[in-house]
């Protein structure tokens, strides 16, 4: 498995060195372009894998195999309509998602409502979680709950009303200003600490991959 | 002794009641058209001032990195940014790193640019560069060669063809832009554009983000990112500033986020009530010695 | 059986009411044009997806599988037309996009340039070989390239913007002296940001037991983190509610015409 290690090391080194050696910039651009092209092939891989999984489910008549037919049918219809640009105003040379095309119709009226509604379901779950799980069990949970409470109240119109009676000298303690302070000061400190920690982890992992210590592309670490 | 089945049924009924309350807290204010005036925060004012200070003809990279799932929060921002930029006479370079982004660009062009700014011509005043896969690798390419990152526009016209696309004449790389505006629904989004474009390229950047992703973006403000619109509230504050500065924009389509803040506010109050009731039940059970439920 | 019958009758009645309302012009008529038909399809799919709140059911499962299929195909179509054609074919076989797809890309491409771009073509095809059980080892070359590019880009991206810049932003004067003299508020904020950051970083140090002074400092760091997570929860609630508002607005405004 020396070839993959060499590829990883070479590509990463060129990208890093190119930041300091301008003559290497064109190579850096080409490698990045290659990455973009391979990313498009990854879409094909994902789609083929999806078809394979559902085809096996249909063949074996696994429980719920009817839904696999639905999945494959919607995939094939969308793919054919999009790849061939069927019914597209600009024809084969126009945009794939031109307004008025069946492909755009599928996106606007099939993909969009289901995707958007799936995300909106989270609003209900978050409300249920707020009622059932958000408890003042200890000091840390209390801090978390009070902060969430202040933020939810302070970022609404009611936040202005609740502390509107405070005198001008106590303006920093008005709820909207207090929420602003929470966001700009302690929340920034905590987020910054998390960001630095994540950055250190990313740098360490990147170095391990570049130097071949970690080889996730081999699928087992060997 | 309560059986498991009865307990499950009781919990399911309680959960459905919560769902119904949330649905009503959003639906009723929407039907009654409840809305409130917004007061812009300093961070939103910074974003507004940054765009307001652009000279006519400024080149602005407008990035639409969101999908239908995050559209309710981000689309009002992207519409407001587009209107503001057109009112300032800026040149718009629209692109996206999300496969679902091209449709959002088309919507903005169709619903905002074309009807409200008929003196904006494609190829001269604005361009739709569409989607290219590659995430941060594309940004890295664009930092040195914009044409290489985006060889064609969304209509398959070569971006090197400055006769058909005169707007591309002055664009060499990311540094050719006066401002980057990123409407971010997730990854890749504002952090990637800050890391790989704004900071190495020295170009000012402002952004709009979903509320969920906002806490991780605050450390970038104001040194690496001039300002940030945080979720629907940020969009509403920006719309408020835009309406105060340009009163001619007082139309329903220019106050989408402001109108949505009414149901948002009522739903917030419902959640606050759930937290209070939930903790009230917990504390009373704890006092009675029935901890752990 | 009776419960299902009641639910079916209620559903059919609601549908009849909606059709009457549509034909009277009070709401979108599905037979008017493709856009109107699309709004009805979108509304039905929205309601089917929302039915999951009651319980898992075939309508929700249908929507789920349709979404998976459409999403996969959408990404593939866009990947093909926006990347493979203008970036790969236009460099390897530029005649195809120019003459067959009417694309405005240059046809005169040097042989060396074409050969160079055979590299990503080859790597991409090697990736597809992964679909075959015996192809996993050879597709490691492409994965190695992807990981090398990602590691190389992210190493400096994170180092510059997330590590060095954040530390630089945190090293600010702790004592704030403005025109009017000493500013207590700004000084307090500066101490809290820098001190809070240091305490949080101490909390992340797991190589030693947190006791004594280190324990107290870590505890304060934990409180700052809890405050951050509480703010994060607040923002999460806001974000999710906004998405629901958008969907309800579609149903009430675009479909039913109530507002």
Summary keywords:
heterotrimer; A: 222 residues; mainly alpha; 8 helices; C: 259 residues; 2 domains; two-stranded antiparallel sheet; 9 helices
Give a nutshell description of this structure.
By secondary structure, chain A is an all-alpha fold.
Helix and strand arrangement:
The complex is a heterotrimer of chains A (222), B (293) and C (259).
Chain A lengths: L1 H16 L7 H35 L5 H19 L18 H31 L6 H16 L2 H6 L12 H10 L1 H25 L12
Chain B lengths: L3 H28 L10 H11 L6 E7 L5 H17 L3 E6 L4 H16 L9 E6 L4 H9 L1 H4 L29 E6 L5 H12 L3 E5 L17 E4 H15 L10 H32 L6
Parallel strand pairs in B: 1-2, 1-4, 2-3, 4-5, 5-6
Chain C lengths: L1 H22 L10 H17 L7 H35 L2 H6 L10 H6 L1 H11 L11 H31 L6 E2 L2 E2 L1 H20 L8 H44 L4
- The total strand number of chain A stands at 0
- Total helix count of chain A? 8
Helix share of residues of chain A? over 70%
Mean pLDDT of chain B: 91
Number of helices of chain B: 9
Structure explained in plain terms:
The complex is a heterotrimer of chains A (222), B (293) and C (259). Chain A has eight helices and no strands. In chain A, 71% of the residues lie in helices and 0% in strands. Chain A is extended and about 65 Å long. Chain A has a domain at 1-83. In chain A, α2 (25-59) packs across α3. Chain B is of the alpha/beta class and 293 residues long. Chain B contains nine helices and six strands; from the N terminus they run ααβαβαβααβαββαα. Chain B has helices spanning 4-31, 42-52, 71-87, 101-116, 136-144, 146-149, 190-201, 231-245, 256-287, and strands at residues 59-65, 91-96, 126-131, 179-184, 205-209, 227-230. The model of chain B has no long low-confidence stretch (mean pLDDT 91). With 259 residues, chain C is mainly alpha-helical. Chain C has two domains: 2-135, no CATH class; 172-255. Helices cover 74% and strands 2% of the residues of chain C. Chain C is built from nine helices and two strands. Chain C has helices at 2-23, 34-50, 58-92, 95-100, 111-116, 118-128, 140-170, 184-203, 212-255, and strands spanning 177-178, 181-182. A two-stranded antiparallel ribbon of chain C has the order 1-2. In chain C, β1 (177-178) and β2 form a beta hairpin. The chains are: A mainly alpha (222), B alpha/beta (293), C mainly alpha (259). Chains in contact: A-B, A-C, B-C. At the A-C interface, α1, α2, α3, α4 and α5 of A face α2, α3, α6, α7 and α8 of C.
């Amino acid at each position: 498995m020396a070839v993959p290690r060499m590829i990883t090391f070479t590509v990463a080194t060129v990208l890093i060195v190119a930041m300091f050696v301008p003559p290497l910039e064109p190579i850096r651009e080409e490698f990045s372009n290659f990455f973009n092209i391979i990313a498009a092939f990854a879409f094909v891989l994902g789609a083929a894998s999806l078809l394979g999984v559902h085809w096996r489910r249909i063949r074996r008549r696994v429980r719920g195999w009817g839904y696999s037919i639905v999945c494959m049918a919607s995939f094939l219809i969308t793919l054919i309509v999009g790849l061939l640009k069927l019914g597209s105003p600009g024809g084969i040379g126009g945009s794939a998602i031109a307004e008025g095309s069946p492909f755009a119709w599928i996106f606007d009226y099939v993909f969009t409502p289901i995707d958007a509604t799936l995300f909106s379901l989270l609003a209900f779950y978050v409300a249920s979680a707020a009622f059932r799980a958000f408890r003042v069990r200890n000091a840390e949970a209390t801090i978390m709950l009070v902060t969430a409470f202040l933020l939810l109240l302070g970022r609404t119109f009611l936040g202005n009303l609740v502390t509107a009676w405070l005198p001008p000298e106590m303006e920093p303690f008005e709820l909207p200003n207090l929420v602003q302070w929470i966001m700009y000061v302690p929340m920034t400190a905590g987020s910054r600490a998390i960001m630095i920690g994540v950055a250190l982890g990313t740098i360490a992992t990147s170095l391990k991959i570049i130097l071949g210590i970690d080889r996730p592309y081999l699928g087992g670490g060997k | 002794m309560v059986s498991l089945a009865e307990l499950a049924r009781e919990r399911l009924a309680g959960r459905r009641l919560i769902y119904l309350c949330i649905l009503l807290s959003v639906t009723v204010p929407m039907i009654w058209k409840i809305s409130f005036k917004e007061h812009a925060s300093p961070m939103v004012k910074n974003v507004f001032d940054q765009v307001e200070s652009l000279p006519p003809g400024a080149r602005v990279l407008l990035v639409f990195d969101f999908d239908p799932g995050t559209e309710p929060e981000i689309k009002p921002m992207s519409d407001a940014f587009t209107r503001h930029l057109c009112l300032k006479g800026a040149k718009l370079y629209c692109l996206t790193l999300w496969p679902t982004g091209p449709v959002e660009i088309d919507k903005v062009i169709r619903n905002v640019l074309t009807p409200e700014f008929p003196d904006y011509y494609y190829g001269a005043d604005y361009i739709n560069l569409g989607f290219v896969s590659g995430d941060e690798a594309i940004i890295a390419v664009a930092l040195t060669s914009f044409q290489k990152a985006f060889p064609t526009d969304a209509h398959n016209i070569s971006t090197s063809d400055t006769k058909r696309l005169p707007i591309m004449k002055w664009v060499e790389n990311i540094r050719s832009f006066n401002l980057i505006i990123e409407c971010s629904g997730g990854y890749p989004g504002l952090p990637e554009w800050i890391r790989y474009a704004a900071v190495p390229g020295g170009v000012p950047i402002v952004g709009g983000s979903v509320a969920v992703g906002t806490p991780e973006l605050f450390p970038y403000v104001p040194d690496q990112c001039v300002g940030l619109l945080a979720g629907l509230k940020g969009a509403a504050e920006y719309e408020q500033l835009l309406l105060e500065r340009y009163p001619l924009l007082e139309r329903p389509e220019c106050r989408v986020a402001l109108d949505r803040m009414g149901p948002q506010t009522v739903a917030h109050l419902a959640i606050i009530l759930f937290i209070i009731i939930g903790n009230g039940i917990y504390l009373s059970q704890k006092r009675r010695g029935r901890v752990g439920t | 059986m009776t419960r299902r019958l009641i639910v079916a009758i209620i559903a059919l009645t609601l549908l009849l009411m909606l059709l009457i309302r549509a034909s009277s012009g009070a709401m979108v008529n599905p037979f008017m044009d493709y856009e109107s038909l699309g709004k009805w399809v979108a509304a039905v799919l929205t309601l089917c997806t929302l039915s999951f709140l009651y319980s898992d059911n075939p309508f929700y499962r249908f929507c789920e599988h349709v979404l998976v299929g459409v999403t996969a195909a959408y990404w593939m179509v866009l990947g093909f037309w926006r990347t493979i054609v203008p970036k790969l074919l236009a460099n390897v076989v530029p005649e195809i996009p120019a003459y067959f797809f009417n694309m405005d890309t240059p046809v005169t491409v040097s042989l060396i340039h074409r050969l160079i771009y055979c590299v990503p073509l080859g790597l991409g095809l090697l990736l597809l070989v992964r679909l075959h059980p015996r192809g996993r080892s050879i597709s490691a070359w492409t994965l190695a390239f992807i990981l090398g590019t990602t590691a190389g880009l992210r190493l400096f991206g994170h180092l510059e913007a997330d590590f060095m810049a954040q530390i630089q932003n945190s090293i600010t004067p702790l004592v704030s002296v403005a025109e009017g003299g000493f500013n207590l508020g700004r000084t307090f904020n500066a101490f809290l940001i820098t001190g809070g950051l240091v305490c949080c970083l101490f909390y992340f140090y797991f190589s030693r037991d947190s006791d004594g002074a280190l324990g107290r400092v870590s505890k304060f760091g934990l409180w700052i983190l809890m405050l951050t997570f509480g703010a994060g929860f607040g923002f999460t609630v806001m974000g999710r509610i906004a998405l629901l508002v958008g969907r309800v607005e579609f149903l009430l405004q675009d479909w039913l015409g109530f507002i």
